[in-house]
Amino acid sequence: MTMGTTVALGVSSSISVYKACEVLRGFQKNGLEVRVLMTLNASRMIAPLLFSALARSKAIVDPIQEESGGSIAHIELAREISLFCVAPATANVIAKFAKGVADDFLSTFYLAVDSPVLIAPAMNEAMFLHPRTQANIRALKAAGVEFVEPEKGYLACREEGWGRLAAPERIVEEGLRLVRRSRSLAGKRVLVTAGPTREYLDPVRFLSNRSSGKMGYALAAEALSRGAEVTLVSGPTALLPPFRAKLVPVETGGEMGAEVAARAPEADVIIMAAAVSDFRFPETAGRKLKKNEFDGRIALVPTPDILEGLGRSRRKEAVLVGFAAETDRLEENALRKLREKNLDIVVANDVKTEGIGFDADENQVVIIDRNGRAVRTERLSKREIGRLILDEVEGVFGRKNR
Ligand code: C5P
Known about the structure:
Blueprint: E1 6-11, H1 20-29, E2 33-38, H2 40-45, H3 48-55, H4 63-66, H5 73-80, E3 81-89, H6 91-99, H7 105-112, E4 117-121, H8 125-129, H9 131-142, E5 146-147, E6 151-154, E7 160-164, H10 168-181, E8 189-194, E9 199-200, E10 206-207, H11 214-225, E11 229-234, E12 246-249, H12 253-263, E13 269-272, E14 279-280, E15 301-302, H13 306-313, E16 319-326, H14 330-340, E17 345-350, E18 362-363, E19 365-369, E20 374-376, E21 380-381, H15 382-400
Parallel strand pairs: 1-2, 1-3, 3-4, 4-5, 8-11, 8-13, 11-12, 13-16, 16-17
Antiparallel strand pairs: 6-7, 9-10, 14-15, 17-19, 18-21, 19-20
Cytidine-5'-monophosphate (C5P) binds at residues 253, 272, 274, 276, 278, 303, 305-307, 322-324, 337.
């Protein structure tokens, strides 16, 4: 790790708070600078002076006292760091992060950070397994936060169970992995398409599909978190574009095709997650058609396949990823699509299963490469699926550009 890389270590009030010193030392041994942020309650359990001495910089507890000289400490530090690691994290801290409550330095800092976030929970087993805590953890995972799961063992409350803070070495190892990954696509241009397209019959009526755009937006967010320069060509969705993505809004497949074609030659990775309408109307009327102008029949013509065009024209070094939404013989059909469209990776979705894929927050996919190697995921948030897809993309990119 290069010198000058800074980690913010958040410390909250668990009995395991003393282990945070080991986490701090572990990061330092790997060449990282550590800045410590403590909750007020943590500072009652262990003196901030200990952390200040170990970190060789003042541990921050209370923003009102710390902020002087006109600088806004939480924003400044948030921009400097390569990782925000909270160890130990109490149920309260996790709940506040999940809901966006910002009533002290640590929780305010979380909202300001745009580096990877790693959380190592520590609490009593009942609290850890409580449906509220688990729901908060799931929500944070869906937002891209990663966790070092607590271990099972003897707890301070004299009970055996899940909830012990993970071993400091595990937390440090995971933290280092996230720091490395936050730069793994630095300098790379990633082009992502997302959402449905609309094909207009007249100015008010169109043909579209159920795509929400969530998978493509999650992929864009994940690529950004790895340091890539991301362009998101998106059909109409109800989503907020990820912070720092260059958003190119489009409506029709024709518009999407043109925007993609203009940007593809510069892209290192192209991910076609959009559900492009396969058909359009032969023409779009310039005015709203009257009911009595329909005879009950509407003609459709096929739209050009954007991905297939890219498969023919793309640069050899670039990684091209397509999606295959299938209802039967998932992997076989997906692999055929990969070959026909000359893709490097195809992500196969089973769109028959309720609750995943189309218009859902979760997905379960098979990621297949040219050699037919398949990664079958569990059912996960789309952000976590995006992470697994980009891991494969990076693998292929590395092999192509060795
Ligand atoms: O052949 P099929 O439409 O199932 O392939 C899906 C993949 O092809 C997706 O990656 C989608 O973005 C892309 N596609 C496209 N242009 C179309 C239709 C699909 O780029 N007209």
